[in-house]
Structure formats: C-alpha cells, structure tokens
C-alpha cells in the first residue's frame, strides 16, 4: 500500500473546485483560502474536456498546469479526474453514434453531461486516448495524489443505453453467456407467451413491449450493461496504474444508484467514494411509511439512516467490494465522501437551507461510518449554467457562506481513522435488486425500501452495520441479515449454511430465495435451496394496498404490517409470530430454526423487535435510541448524534439541537 492509498491518522477535508469557471487571478487566492480553512485536498477537471482539448489532438494544458501549480504552492493536494463524463461537441458531432438511447428508443442529445454509450467502440477509443494524455501529463506531478475515474456512473439514468452500440453488442454478450439460443430460451422461460428466439441476433434490449417485460430479459440486460461499465473503467484504471504509479484511484458513486453492480465496478479501485446530498436524498428516498411529517421533521438535516445506509454500502466497497475491515480481517483505506453538500442543492423538488450545525454533523457522521476524507461540493457557487442555484462554501460574490464557518470550526484531530467495529452484516445484491423492482407486486415497496427498513431498525438500536455482498465471507460477524436477497443460488445457500454452522445467526426478510439465478422461481417454491436451513416453505403472500394492513401477534406484542405479508408452512422451524385477522389469520409470520429466523411481514416495529431478540446473547451491544438520535463507533470512539431541531434528553444528558459529541473510551 502506498502513502497515497494509506489512511491518514485522522479525518481530512477537501473541496471540489473548478478553476476553468473563474478568472485566473482567483486561483492562487482560492488555494490559499482553502488551505487556511483546513482543507487539504481539491478535486478538479472532471468536466473540463472541452477546455483541455478544444479540437481533436490539440491540447491546451497551460491553464491546468497553472491551476495545479497554484494548489501545489499552497500545499493543497490534487485529485485529478479523467475527462470522460462530458464528451465535447466536436467529438459528438463527428461521431453521433457515441450518443446513448433512452428506454423510449430516443437519442439522448448533447447539451448536458453523461451523454455517451459505454459500449461505443469509438468512445472507448477516445476514453483511452484522453486518459492516457492526462496521465502522461500529470501522472507523476508531486501535487497529484490520486485520480477519480469519470464522474457519477449511472447519474441521470445513464447506466444503460437501449439502442446504438449497446443494442448491437448485446446479442454477442448473450452468445458468450449461453452458447446456444436454446439454453437462453430455457433460462428466460421464453416458451411463455411464445417469446422463443431462433437466433441471438433476433434479441433486442428490453423496452417498449406491449405489456410487462420478461424479468429474465431485464436481468440479463442489467448484467450486460453493468459489465460494460466495469470494462470501461478498467481500461482507464490500467492506464492510470501504469502511467501514474503510487497514486490512488477511486470513483464517486451515487445515492441509492441501482443501474449497475457496484461490487463489480469497484473491483480494481483503491477505495470507493460517494457523493452525499442529504436534503435532496430525503425528498427522493424517504424511509418506508414516511409521510410529509417525516420529510418536514428532517427537511433541514436529512434523515440519519438514509445517509448512514449509503455510508455503510460504500465503506464495504473500499477494498473491491468484499466487505473487508471487520474484526480480524485488516483495515482497508477508508472511503471518501467526494462531494458533501454544504448548503442548498439545486436538483430536488424542494431545496431548503440546511439547519445550523448540519454541515458539521454530516461531516462527523461520515467519519464515524468510515470516511477518511470529506470533500465539500463546491468551493464557490457556480455563476453559470445548470447549477447556479446550488450552494458552495463561497457565495456567488465570493463571500463565505454558512457552511464554511462550520467547516473552519471542526477539530479534525478528534476524528481518528481506524476500523468501524461492526459485527452485524446486512447482505446486499444488485441482481436481487433488479429482479425485485422489476416485479414489486406492491407499489409501496421496493428493494431499497426493504433494505432501509432493516438497516434503520438496527441503527435505531445503536448497532454498527457493514453492508456486504450476499456472497461475502461472513466469518467474524455475529449476525447476518438478508432483508431482500430474492435471488439465491445453490452455491449462495451453501455459503450461508456454512456461516450458520460456524455460529453466525441469520435473519431473512420477505421474498428471500424466491428466484433462481436466471430469474425464474424455484420449482420447489420459496425459499428454494434455503428451505432446509430456514425450516419453512412459503404458504401465501399478500400485497397490501395503502388502505390495508395486517396484524401480527407475538411475544413482544402486536404489530401492523404494511405493503407486504407472507406466511409459511413449518418444515422444522417453530412459529414465533402469527397473523391475526384477514386471509392470513393464524398463519405463521415469523419462524425460527436454530440460528436462523425468517420474517414475512413488512413492519418496522416487528423487524426491530425480532432483531432485538436475535441480537440478545450475541455480545453485540444494543441501545434503543430516541427518534433522531444515533450512535456510531469508530477507532475506539463513539459519536452521539442529535438530528432533531430541538434538544433531546437522553441518558441523563441534554443533546443540543443538530449536534454531535465524540466520546473516547478507555
């Protein structure tokens, strides 16, 4: 591990800056201001292709040379970006075949960003060419400590193109996967509705069908498009490794991005980064069952569990997505928050100002969930184009905005780096996500909704959580929770059985093991190859409209299920909770066998109660917390957070509104 990829001794801060947006006489001043504010990193150039290469093969390096030297002179380290998120107009007009297609078969035009098809051989050639030029110019510059590939893969629904190069490449990908079309027809169940193909060349992307798409078709297209993104990035990484040795390579992933397999795409990176916008995220991904009251309550802070969920995903990607960093496994470099909201955003339906203290609170929470660096977006608010309504650390007139005062006041030394001591693993799988959301069966539920419900229940108990791939090594964990892993192969089932036999307690949510790897259901029914391990078989499932609920009875009381309720036939397990009333009356809602438990009802209260029971006796400490109060642990310290706009009395102390406290343990 090089110095550039090793964790610093404590949290460090940075910002995203755009020297090409301002006059040159600002560059040295801005760099000095950033240093004086305690910022040690700057990310630049992710959207600068047209300025660096105004026409093909004609580069203007002078301005970026000067900008990098200004940061270097101020002692600010530079993270450079590859340029490929914004192909310039000259390239698009010369090669319009680069442009992607949307799900309606329409070309997505030039004039914004991310306007390219990952499968385009022409674009792949230009991606390699311009990445090599950047790496040759700056790869060994003493100010450059790392690279960000591209920018926000998948943003604006750009992970998949439904025409052009992707459509042309898909049949060959299928041919490599299935060899003969008969195997594809069998795997996809194409005898249904006479959907069988006579050759791979007859197959198009899944779009514009008269009624529902075949979920197996959708699953394989998602796999195909994800592999394109991984290939695209791998080509850049190989160039940067060779031409810029000793520098880290990362990518800034997105909030709840579903368009590709992040574990696949993160392989080969030194660590993962992500872009944290708590207020915009709340508007788009409010927790299950949330109404306007919850959005109003957290309108100026964001919901702590939504933010924590994404932190925990991207921490697990830090070493290529295998969920490393747990006890006995060593500590990979921590993730970065490459873009941290520091004022208003511009892209949500509503964009309120953050509460006083929110920027500092977001920073502290990021550290506690594994971030080694938090970088604020952006240094100065944009005075042009699409983002003029987005705040920065400086206002448009270059005066300091509210967020910068909070950044200046942070004592970075109180946040040492080190492992997050999570002993509970939340199992996550993008293929399950794609299948689940293709056929939700209940409009109020989604894969993320179900995942967030279980994660939030654990966080409300003060439990630290790793979110890891469903096939990760689970040794070292006390409890593994699979809220929505609907795709379970025999190999995956065997891995889970091995973990349970090794002493790990396993908790499964609704629809676990419903699907085979090809997307079909198991002929023996849910939970497929997990039946012996869980000791149950699916009996009924009930999709609950918003006006319906289902009562659940058990040792911890009565609960109301919303959205989904499924019942089980016992085949070795014991009933823990049963349904009361309705068509599921008297049937089993929760069952346990040995170290395994399966929960069939979507009820936040029930989930919390069952997880409390499962965690008892595992040695994992639980602390039931008031609404809006959270605990997180890292490197021997505990972060107490109050996300409420009013003071909270808790355990004999008064927690100030929108605040945090770092406790050090002996």
Provide a brief overview of the structure:
The chain is α/β, with parallel strands linked by helices and 666 residues long. The protein folds into three domains: 12-159 and 247-414, Glycosidases (TIM Barrel, Alpha-Beta Barrel); 424-615, Class I glutamine amidotransferase (GATase) domain (Rossmann fold, 3-Layer(aba) Sandwich); 629-664, no CATH class.
CATH homologous superfamily grouping of the largest domain: Glycosidases
Mean pLDDT: 95
**Number of DSSP strand runs:** 25
How many domains, as an integer?
Answer: 3
Distance between the termini: 30 Å
Low-confidence stretches: 319-331
Question: Going across the major beta sheet, what is the strand order?
Answer: 5-4-3-2-1-9-8-7-6
* Rg measurement, Å: 25 Å
Helical content stands at 25-40%
Largest sheet: 9 strands, parallel
| Helix segment tally | 19
CATH topology of the largest domain: TIM Barrel
β-sheet strand percentage:
15-25%
CATH architectural grouping of the largest domain: Alpha-Beta Barrel
What are the key terms here?
nine-stranded parallel β-sheet, 31% helix, alpha/beta, TIM Barrel, 666 residues, 3 domains, Rossmann fold
């Amino acid at each position: 591990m090089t110095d550039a990829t090793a964790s610093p001794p404590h949290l460090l801060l940075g910002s995203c800056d755009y020297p090409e947006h301002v006059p040159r006489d600002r560059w040295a001043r801005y760099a000095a201001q950033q240093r004086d504010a305690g910022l040690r990193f700057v990310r630049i150039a992710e959207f600068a292709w047209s300025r660096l290469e105004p026409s093909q093969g004609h580069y203007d390096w002078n301005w970026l040379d000067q900008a990098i030297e200004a940061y270097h002179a101020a002692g600010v380290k530079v993270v450079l970006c590859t340029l490929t998120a914004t192909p310039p107009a000259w390239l698009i007009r010369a090669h319009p075949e680069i442009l992607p297609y949307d799900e309606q078969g329409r070309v997505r035009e030039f004039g914004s960003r991310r306007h390219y098809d990952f499968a385009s051989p022409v674009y792949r050639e230009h991606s390699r060419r311009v990445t090599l030029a950047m790496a040759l110019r700056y790869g060994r510059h003493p100010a450059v400590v790392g690279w960000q590939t591209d920018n926000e893969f998948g943003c604006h629904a750009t992970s998949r193109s439904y025409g052009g190069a992707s459509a042309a490449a898909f049949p060959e990908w299928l041919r490599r996967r299935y060899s003969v079309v008969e195997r594809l027809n069998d795997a996809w169940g194409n005898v249904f509705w006479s959907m069988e193909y006579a050759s791979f060349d007859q197959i198009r992307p899944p779009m514009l069908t008269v009624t529902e798409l075949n979920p197996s078709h959708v699953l394989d297209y998602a796999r195909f498009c994800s592999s394109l993104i991984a290939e695209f990035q791998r080509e850049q990484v190989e160039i940067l490794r060779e031409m810029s040795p000793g520098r880290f390579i990362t990518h800034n992933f997105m909030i709840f991005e579903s368009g590709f397999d992040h574990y696949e795409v993160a392989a080969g990176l030194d660590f993962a980064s992500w872009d944290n916008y708590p207020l915009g995220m709340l508007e788009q991904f409010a927790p299950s069952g949330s109404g306007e009251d919850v959005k109003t309550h957290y309108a100026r802070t964001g919901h702590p569990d939504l933010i924590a969920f994404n932190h925990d995903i991207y921490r697990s990607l830090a070493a290529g997505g295998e969920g490393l960093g747990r006890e006995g496994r060593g500590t990979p470099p921590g993730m970065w928050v490459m873009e941290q909201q520091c004022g208003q955003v511009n892209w949500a339906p509503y964009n309120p100002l953050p509460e006083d203290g929110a920027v500092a609170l977001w920073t502290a929470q990021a550290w506690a969930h594994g971030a080694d660096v938090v970088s604020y977006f952006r240094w100065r608010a944009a005075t042009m184009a699409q983002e003029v309504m987005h705040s920065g650390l400086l206002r448009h007139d270059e005066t300091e905005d509210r967020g910068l005062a909070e950044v200046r006041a942070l004592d970075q030394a109180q946040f040492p780096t080190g492992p997050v001591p999570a002993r509970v693993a939340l199992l996550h799988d993008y293929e399950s996500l794609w299948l689940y959301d293709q056929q939700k069966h209940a409009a109020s539920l989604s894969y993320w909704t179900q995942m967030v419900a279980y994660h939030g229940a654990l966080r409300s108990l003060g439990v630290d959580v790793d979110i890891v791939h469903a096939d990760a090594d689970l040794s070292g964990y006390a409890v593994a929770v699979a809220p929505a892993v609907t795709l379970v192969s025999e190999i995956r089932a065997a891995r889970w059985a091995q973990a349970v036999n090794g002493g790990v307690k396993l908790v499964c949510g609704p629809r676990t093991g419903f699907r085979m790897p090809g997307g079909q259901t198991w002929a023996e029914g849910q939970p497929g190859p997990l039946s012996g391990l869980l000791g149950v078989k699916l009996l009924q499932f009930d999709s609950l409209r918003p006006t319906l609920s289902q009562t659940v009875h058990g040792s911890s009381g009565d609960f109301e299920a919303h959205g989904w309720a499924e019942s089980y036939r016992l085949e070795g397990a014991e009933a823990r909770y049963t349904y009361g009333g309705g068509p599921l009356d008297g049937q089993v809602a929760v069952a346990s066998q040995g170290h395994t438990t399966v929960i069939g009802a979507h009820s936040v209260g029930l989930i919390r109660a069952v997880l409390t029971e499962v965690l008892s006796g595992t040695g994992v400490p639980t602390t039931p917390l008031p609404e809006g109060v959270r605990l997180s642990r890292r490197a021997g310290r505990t972060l107490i957070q109050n996300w409420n706009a009013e003071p909270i009395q808790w355990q004999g102390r008064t927690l100030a509104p929108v605040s945090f406290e770092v406790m050090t343990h002996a």
